[in-house]
Amino acid sequence: MARETTRRSGGRRSPWAAAALIGIGLLITGGGYAGASAAMAATDPAPAQASTLTVEDGKKLFQANCATCHGLDLQGTQDGPSLYGVGELSVHFQVSTGRMPLQMQGPQAPQKPPQFTEEQTAAMAAFVQSVAPGPTFPAEEVLDGGGDASHGGELFRINCAMCHNVAGAGGALTEGKYAPALHEVTPINMYAAMVTGPQNMPVFNDMTLTTEEKRDIITYLLFLQDNESPGGFSLGSLGPVSEGLFIWIFGIGSLIALTVWITAKSN
């Protein structure tokens, strides 16, 4: 009897043994799979980075995604304007910001995530430039943010703030249109907007704003992007309207609540 009892106690297993074995098995299997996947990824080349799209590739992309509205020869249709003279700079602006292809007809093409890679966008822009030349990309120094931010701020307030707000926060226009915020716009698209005048924006050619003045405006906008509001919470950067509303709701509301509380305590 003693031997039988000893044998039974020696063969008893912990209730956590099965769970531990399953966990160890999952760790080994997952680790092996992760290692194999990493090894395969390291050996496979990156075809997207190695390949370079040509103007002919841009033509195919344009015909497949843009010709329905703009025509096979860029002449335009009832659903879209002609692209003669818009140039590669306008194509880059519209496609890289997701405004094109247009999602639906409306007062204004909204900005949305782009549907094409930078390489595909460049190929379509090169195709349009080869067929219907127009404004092209500026020199790199125009976009480097090394201009006069103070002078750029003055130019922005004179020419742009009535629509985009003095802090670049954007604003409403008529008939459902609006001036977009500029807090996340890239330097190349800032320049493109000034040169091509997309949608409701006027064109600022070199007789209106010189290249150096455009550089100063870009420098000012980059300064706004890199520096937070010195007063703390910006309240949308909408000026006295939002500030007065905040004071009215929270400031006067707090005073009323405090008055009611004091009256209730005294009674």
UniProtKB/TrEMBL annotation:
It catalyses: a quinol + 2 Fe(III)-[cytochrome c](out) = a quinone + 2 Fe(II)-[cytochrome c](out) + 2 H(+)(out). InterPro entries: bc1_cytC-su, Cyt_c-like_dom, Cyt_c-like_dom_sf, Cytochrome_c_Oxidase_Subunit. Its EC number is 7.1.1.8. The keyword Transmembrane helix applies. It is found in: Cell membrane. It comes from the Bacteria. Keywords: Cell membrane, Electron transport, Heme, Iron, Membrane, Metal-binding, Repeat, Respiratory chain, Translocase, Transmembrane, Transmembrane helix, Transport. It is a multi-pass membrane protein. The chain crosses the membrane at residues 245-264. It is an enzyme of class 7 (translocase). Residues 53-132, 147-225 form the Cytochrome c domain. PANTHER family: CBB3-TYPE CYTOCHROME C OXIDASE SUBUNIT FIXP (PTHR33751), CYTOCHROME BC1 COMPLEX CYTOCHROME C SUBUNIT (PTHR33751:SF13). The cytochrome bc1 complex is composed of a cytochrome b (QcrB), the Rieske iron-sulfur protein (QcrA) and a diheme cytochrome c (QcrC) subunit. This is Cytochrome bc1 complex cytochrome c subunit. It comes from Microbacterium awajiense.
